[in-house]
Amino acid sequence: MPSPPASAGDAIPPDCKVIEVRVAELRQLFDSIDPSPFAERDLDPRAEEFIVGWSRDLPRDAPLALVVHLERAAGIAGEAANLRDAIHEFFGQRAAATRRNLRELFRRGRISLAIGLAFLASSIATGDAVASYFRSNLAEILRESLLIGGWVAMWRPLEIFLYDWWPIRQDARRFDRLSAMPVRVLSGSHASPDAWRSDRPAARGREPSAEEH
């Protein structure tokens, strides 16, 4: 019978909703063209999309955990901890960037609201002045047109404050959960014990001794 996969990393609490990823090597999880150190490297866009997409299907307030099924045998000591730190750093940065985007959206919303209110007020004042001065059907049509234009100018700030902000806040909260989730690696046993040497993102730290193989 085949031996069970080697397991390393964080313990998975029983109340966590588990996201599972299966890769041949850990480096497949990371962007191959990112020159940053391993702990600061971006996830591969497809890996990020998969993990985030899975998290969207889970209950909004449930704690999350990530289990990586690795086809190769276990490598250097601490590679699961290195992977966890890199994933936490990546999603922590995503959460911070999303909150910056939310603050920028609110800033634009306040500016748009000020412009919209000023334009609406001037449209109403101009329309009332034209209607009271000319007192004709054409003046009434112009007044209504200015009023409609003023309310159209309010469309963008209303869209921001009613609809645009809350999906961004949900994304920030989701990234917070992903940045704190426990990470566990289940390694295969059928690959060469030296297969980890070609898996460069995992090759950080001391090599395992003969007793650890």
What features would you describe in this structure?
The protein has one domain. By secondary structure, the protein is of the alpha/beta class. α1 (45-56) links the parallel β2 (17-23) and β3 (64-70). It is built from 4 helices and 4 strands, in the order ββαβαααβ. The protein has helices at residues 45-56, 79-134, 137-152, 155-179; strands spanning 6-9, 17-23, 64-70, 183-187. Residues 194-198 and 203-213 have low confidence and may be disordered.
Please give the largest β-sheet.
4 strands, mixed
Q: How many distinct beta strands?
A: 4
Count of discrete domains: 1
Integer average pLDDT = 85
Give the distance, in angstroms, between the N- and C-terminal Cα atoms. 20 Å
User: SSE string, helix = H, strand = E?
Assistant: EEHEHHHE
Main attributes of the structure:
disordered C terminus; 213 residues; alpha/beta; single chain; 4 helices; 4 strands; 4-stranded mixed β-sheet
What is shown here, in short?
The protein is built from four helices and four strands; from the N terminus they run ββαβαααβ.
Question: Which secondary structure elements does this structure contain, and how are they paired or packed?
Answer:
Elements (H helix, E strand, L loop, with lengths): L5 E4 L7 E7 L21 H12 L7 E7 L8 H56 L2 H16 L2 H25 L3 E5 L26
Parallel strand pairs: 2-3, 3-4
Antiparallel strand pairs: 1-4
Helix pairs in contact: 2-3, 2-4
